[in-house]
Amino acid sequence: MPFLEPKPEALRPVSHPEAPAHDRVPDRQAKGTPEPLRSELCALLGEDKVLTKISDLVRYASDASPYRFVPQVVVVAEDIDDISAVLSYAHGRSREVVFRAAGTSLNGQAQGEDILVDVRKHWAGVEVIGDGEQARIGPGTTILRANATLARHGRVLGPDPASAIACTIGGVVANNASGMTAGTTRNSYHTVASLTFVLPTGTVVDTADPDADEQLAHAEPALCEGLLQIKREIEADRELTARIRAKYEIKNTNGYRLDAFLDGATPVEILRGLMVGSEGTFGFISEVVFDTLPLDRHLTTALLFFPSLPAAAAAVPLFNEAGALAVELMDGNTLRASTSVAGVPADWARLPKSTAALLVEFRAPDEAGREAYEAAAAKVVEGLELVAPVASVTNTFTRDPKTIGGYWKARKAFVTAVGGSRPSGTTLITEDFAVPPSRLADACGALLELQTRHGFDAAVAGHAAHGNLHFLLAFDAGLPSDVERYAAFMDEFCRLTVERFDGSLKAEHATGRNIAPFLELEWGPEATELMWRTKQVIDPDCVLAPRIVLDRDPKAHLRGLKTIPKVELIADPCIECGFCEPTCPSEDLTTTPRQRIVLRREMMRQRPGSPVEDGLVEAYGYDAVDTCAGDSTCKLACPVGIDTGALMKDFRHARHSPREERAAAVAAKNFKAVEAAARLAVAASDRISDRLLTSVTRAARKAVRPDLVPEWLPDIPGAAARKLPRTQRRGASAVYYPACVNRIFGSPGDRSLPEAMVAVATRAGRPVWIPDDVAGTCCATIWHSKGYDQGNAVMANRIVEAAWAWTAGGRLPLVVDASSCTLGIAHEVVPHLTAENRELHRELTVVDSLVWAADELLPHLTVHRTVGSAVLHPTCSMSHLGDEAQLRTLAEACADEVVVPDDAGCCAFAGDRGMLHKELTESATRKEAAEVTTRPYDAHLSANRMCEVGMDHATGRSYYSVLLELERATRP
Questions:
Q1: Is the pLDDT reported for residue 899 higher than 80?
Q2: Which of 81, 406, 497, 928 could share a disulfide with 503, CB 3.0–4.6 Å?
Q3: How far is CA 602 from CA 68, 70, 259, 563, 825, in A?
C-alpha cells in the first residue's frame, strides 16, 4: 500500500436517515452485473465496453425525470455493429434494451431495468452539407454543439429545447422535442430530411437510400406488410383520419405519430415518420440529416410584465399576429425563483405572487425587417396594461445581446431554478401539456386552481405562442400520502386537459412513464390500439424500451418514483437535470457532476455499512474525487450554481491525514525555497532523459500516492530564468504579478512571458512594475485545488497582504499573467482570509493580463506583422472571469484568421492534475484535439502555462501565451 494512501472511509456519509429508503438498491445487487450476463456481454463486446460495477449501475439509474430504475448492465456502444450485437443478444435471451444519450428526458425514457446502452460517448459529430442547408449529425451531439457549427453558415436547427446545452440529437428526435420557437412546423418531424436507424432485429435502414424500400421489403417483409395494412385501415376511416390531423394542429408528443401513416406512402417513409417521437421503442437512430433553417440575427426582444397570469395569456395572440417567433410565459413563482440564476435582477424576488411576464422575441434577416417588427410590436404594447412592480422592470424592447441573453437565461432555467428552490428531500416532476392557443388564458386559470386545491405550489411557464404550458410538482416520494396526492392530481389534471380543452397531455416532452397510463384517455381506444399494433409490427418481441410509451397498468406512473435523500448542502438543490455534464472534463472517463451527486444520494439511501454502500464508497475515491478536475465549470452550466468541484475539494480535504495537512502548510510557509527547488529540478531535467524521469516518478507514485506525486510528461517545458525582468516602480501604471508557474516554467520562443509583458506594456506607454519580493508568493490554487485548508489559508493571506502593499493599498491594479491565478486571487482566496485581510482584499483591483492587454495596451500598440492563422484554447478560468472575448481580441490583432474550436473545453490539466492523472487530460481534450489537428495553424494560443502544456500533450502542437504573440506582432 502507498505510504500516504487515503482510507475510503473518509468518504462514507457521517450520518444517515433513521431508516433506509424503500427504493434503495438491494444488497443482492452489491456485486454489480450478475452472471452470466456479465461474462457473456464482455465476451461479445469486450470488457472495455461493458460497465458492471455497482457504482456504474447506480450512476446510470437516474436521469432528469422523477423516476429511477437500476439497470443490470451498461453497454457503451461504439458503432452500429455493437448495437446490432446487443440487439441480437437480447433477442436470443428474451432481454430488454433501453438506449440512453444525455439523460435529460423528463419522463424516464432514458432508464431501463435490464440492458442500458450508452449512445452518447462515441456518437457525436456534425457534417455540414452544401452551404449549410442540411447537416448530418450524430445522435450523441448536443443541440448547442450542432448549432455552433451551423452558425458559421448562417443556419440553425429547428428544434430548440431549453436543455440545448446538454440534450442530444438522438433524444431530441426520439422525443420530437421542440422548444421555444419550433412550434408545430420547425420540430424534428417536419425538419428531419432522412434518418439512419437500426430496427430491433438488427436491420439497418437509411431512409435517404433510393433502394431503401426494396431492401427493407427483402429483409423485413412482415414488417412492411403490417405497416401498409395499418395505413390502409386509417385512410379508410375518415373520422379517424380527421381526428389524427386535428390532434397535430397543436403540439403533441403523446403516443406514436399516427400521422406518419398518412404522410408516408411507403414502409420506409412511414418508418421515417414513426421513428420521430418513438422514444427508443422502435429502434436506434444512428444518424440524422436535418433540413436547417436560416439563422436570423437581427433580434428585438422584450420582457413584459402583467398584473396576472390570465392577463399575460390574453396578450399572446396579439404578438403571434404581429409575427413574433417566440412568446414565452412565466408566472410569479417562476420569476422569483429565477433570481438564483446569475445575472437575473435581485429585485425580482420582491415581485408580487400574481405577477406574470411574457418574453417576446422577433427575429428578422435584415435591419429593415427588424424595424418593421419593432413598429408592429409597439402597436401591440400600446394597448396593453403593463406593470412595473420593481425597479429593474423596463417593459421595453431591446436589441442589446447581453440583456436579451439574460432574459433567455432566466426563461430556460425554469425547471432547474424553480426545482432547485423546492423543499429539501422532495422529488420534482415536470409536466408539459398543450391546449389550443385561444384557450390559453382559461387553461392557466384552471391549472392554478387545480394546483392550489391539491396543495402544490403553483409555478407555470411555457411556450405561450403555441399554447404549450409547463408546470412543476414537488412532493416526497417516500411518503405514501404525498404519492397519493400526486396520483389524485394527475387523474384530475389529465381529465381536465382532455375533456375540457381537448388538449395534448404531452406537448413536447414525449409520453414517457408518467403519461403512458393516460394515453387512451387522450387518444381513445381505437387509435390507442393502433399504436399497440404498430409496436407489435415493428418490435414483436418487445425488446426495446417496454412500458415507456405503452403500458396498460393504470398506476404505472407511480412505479419507480425516486426519493431524494438530503446530501451535502452545496449539492442538495440538484434536480439531476444533467446540464452540467457536457462541460465536465471527466464526462467520458469516470463520472459527471450529476453522477457524483447521484452516487452520494444512493449512499444516503442505504443502511450504514451495507454491501452496496461499501461498493459505492470504494469506487468513489477515484471515480468521483480524484478524477474531478476541480475547474468548477459545472457551476457555470448549472442554473442554480451548484459547484460540484468545490464539493470534491472538500472530500479531498476529508481524506487528508493531519500529517499531510501539516506538510502542505509547511510547504506554503516555505514556498520561496519550494519554488526555487522546483525551478532547479525542472532545469536539471533538461539533462535527464524523459524515459528515466517517467520511470522514477512512476515508482514514487506507487510508493507515496498517485494523487500526490506527479508523473513526468515529455511535454513539460524547461525552466524559467532565475531572475525576472528589471522594472521601475516610479511611473508604473500597474503592478505586474508573474504567477509562480511562469516563474518556474519557461516559455517557447526568444522571450519569456514576463519579458514579453514588460516589453508590450512599455511599448504601449503603460509600464508595469514587478515587485522584488514576488518569490515565495502564490495565488494559493495549489493548495485550494487539493483541499489543503491549512496551506491554502497560509498562502491566501500572504498573497493578499503582499498585493495590498505592492499596489499601495489598491491604488494600482494588480495584473496577473495566468488566468487561473487571476481567478484565485480575485475570488477563490476570499473564504480563507482573516477578517482583516478581507477588508484589504476589497480594496484590490485584480486584473487578468488578457483584459489589461486588450483594454489598456492594444489601443496604443502598432501591429507590424501577423501570422496567417491562430487557433485558441480558452481556459476554464477565462470562462469564470468572462475573459474569452479579450483572448479573441488579442488574437485577432496578431493573426489574419482566428479559430476557436467548437469542442473547446476545460483541458483538465488543472495545475498538476494532468500529471497526477494524465488519463483525465487525455479524455478531456480528445474532441478538441481531434478538431485542432485536422488542419495546420501558424499559432496555438492560450493564456495559462499549464493549460498550454496540457494542450501540447493532447495535440502534439506547441501552445503558448497570446501575450508572447502580441509582443512579436508589435515588435518594431
A1: yes
A2: 497
A3: 11, 11, 43, 10, 36
